[in-house]
Specification:
alpha/beta, five-stranded mixed beta sheet, 14 helices, 33% helix
Length: 495
């Protein structure tokens, strides 16, 4: 268990090493057990975590919240079958590092009586939101910059939201039947890796110029996947929806706005128009997928950003309502199984000694303070100095992280660390013969950043430059997820 309020990098290192050895939710995978008996009980909770104006946004220093487009929430779904309970929780933040999530999972688990390893916390990955990199912020405490980088008040607000949503979901759980449904999503996702001469690739940003918007859509997965639960008491429906696209209709630049983006606003529209419907969105393997082709301009004006959020949200809501209306084969969910494990991913290059990274961080902090005194803003300046944090999280050229696989009836989920490529999810589905499989990225740990295949390193582009993981990490993660899915009863396709 990670202690609150690390006072030095040395203490952080000791605690992280203890976690890597197998404490808390990072312990070895839960073994697959025989099917539970009885019907599944499902509950839903939601708590508002909209930050106050002036809260540091996702870039950290000098990136204060200027305007709220729509509310931010933590949403939770309670799943209980026999003596097993799994709690899925999603916050409207860009992502949370694994050591913070370990602490939060312990707290949630104690509050509602669920093992911490069965609390699965992930993020929608909206880019316009308050900064949630509190573990990195702790490293700035000696320089008086911690709370200016990632608000401790918002951390308290986020944790309170987790607890409130968890309580609501437990209290509202009722016997339910389940269905799986799919529906195409029209004109939201596009592949941001655009081919250029020489077999290379360039990036189409979330708010590109008109010429880049005119480029082809590229490889995407157009399907929304929905797992739906219908109350046997009153017919109310709770839905988990999963879609492979960055939620960046409002932009990927992480400046001072707050929005749940098209997933949050789209769910609100679908809930309002369908009635008696409550939803939770899980962002899929969308590392190279964004709405860049379909936004209407590259304008940075708030009104234009809100317009694009609303446009994509209406399209998303239409797909959700189609999936709900098309659901059939309702029946009991006879199995609820979870396998979760900590493991290591290969780093791209050897990290420097801790002392060297600490000196680099101290120099950057002093430079920031001098520039600040001269009224020069540097949004994002300190975010790129998470090297010290990665050193604390790594050992022998490997980064310690965690992942999970979940079986719910005959539907399967992967909860993946970091940002994972669309092709990663497609390869997993192909391995198992294209079963109902919802892949969830930015789950349990954001610290891994991008998990990038060798082919993308060969082609170049943004993702290979933004990750500290080696190409081998892509294969390591895939092998781990195959093993975790097998452990909850999914068999590879025969070839």
């Amino acid at each position: 268990m990670f202690m609150k309020g690390l006072v030095s990098a040395v203490m952080s290192l000791a605690l992280l090493a203890a976690s890597a050895a197998g404490s808390g939710p990072r312990a070895a995978a839960q073994a697959s057990q025989p099917p539970a008996t009885g019907g599944i009980a499902v509950g839903y909770g939601r708590a508002d975590i909209t930050p106050a104006l002036g809260t540091p946004c996702a870039l950290g220093l000098d990136d204060e919240l200027l305007e709220v487009f729509d509310p931010l929430y933590v949403r939770a779904i309670w799943l209980s079958l026999g003596d097993r309970t799994v709690l899925i929780m999603v916050g409207d933040v860009i992502g949370v590092n694994g050591d913070d999530l370990d602490e939060f999972s312990e707290l949630v688990g104690k509050t509602v009586g669920v093992p911490a390893k069965n609390v699965l916390i992930t993020s929608t990955h909206t880019h316009e939101t308050a900064n949630s990199r509190w573990s990195v912020g702790k490293l700035l405490r000696p320089f008086g910059l911690e709370d200016k980088f990632s608000s401790l008040k918002f951390k308290d607000q986020y944790v309170a939201g987790l607890l409130e949503a968890a309580r609501q979901s437990k209290a509202s759980a009722v016997p339910s039947e389940m269905a799986y449904s799919e529906s195409p999503v029209v004109d939201i996702a596009s592949n941001r890796r655009l081919p250029i001469e020489g077999g290379k690739a360039m990036m189409r940003p979330a708010r590109p110029s008109a010429d880049l918007r005119a480029k082809p859509v590229g490889k995407i997965d157009p399907l929304l996947r929905a797992v739906l639960f219908r109350s046997l008491k009153d017919g109310a429906v709770i839905g988990i929806v999963n879609y492979n696209c960055h939620p960046t209709a409002a932009g990927g630049d992480e400046l001072g706005y707050a929005t749940g983006d098209f997933p949050g606003v789209g769910m609100a529209i679908a809930e309002r128009e369908a009635g008696n419907l409550k939803l939770l969105h899980l962002t899929g393997t969308a590392g190279e997928i964004n709405p860049g082709k379909y936004v209407l301009s590259d304008s940075t004006l708030p009104g234009d950003r809100q317009r694009d959020v609303q446009l994509m949200a209406r399209r998303y809501a239409a797909a959700i309502k189609s999936a709900v209306a098309g659901a059939k084969d309702w029946g009991p969910a006879a199995r609820l199984e979870l396998s979760r494990e900590s493991f290591e991913l290969s780093l791209r290059e050897k990290l420097p000694p801790l002392e060297e990274a600490q000196k680099k961080l101290a120099a950057a902090a002093e430079e920031y303070k001098k520039n600040k005194a001269a009224a020069a803003k540097q949004p994002g300046r300190m975010r790129g100095l998470g090297e010290e944090y990665l050193i604390l999280r790594s050992r022998d050229g490997k980064l310690v992280t965690q992942a999970a696989a979940l079986r719910l009836g005959d539907v399967f989920f992967t909860f993946l660390p970091g940002e994972d490529m669309l092709m990663f999810g497609e390869e997993l589905r192909d391995t198992f013969g294209r079963p109902p499989l919802l892949n969830v990225t930015l789950a349990l740990d954001i610290a891994t950043s991008y998990v990038v295949p060798q082919v993308y390193f060969d082609e170049g582009g943004y993702e290979p430059t933004a990750t500290r993981l080696a190409p081998a990490a892509y294969v390591e993660l895939k092998d781990k997820m195959i093993a975790l899915l097998e452990s909850v009863g999914l068999a590879p396709a025969k070839r």
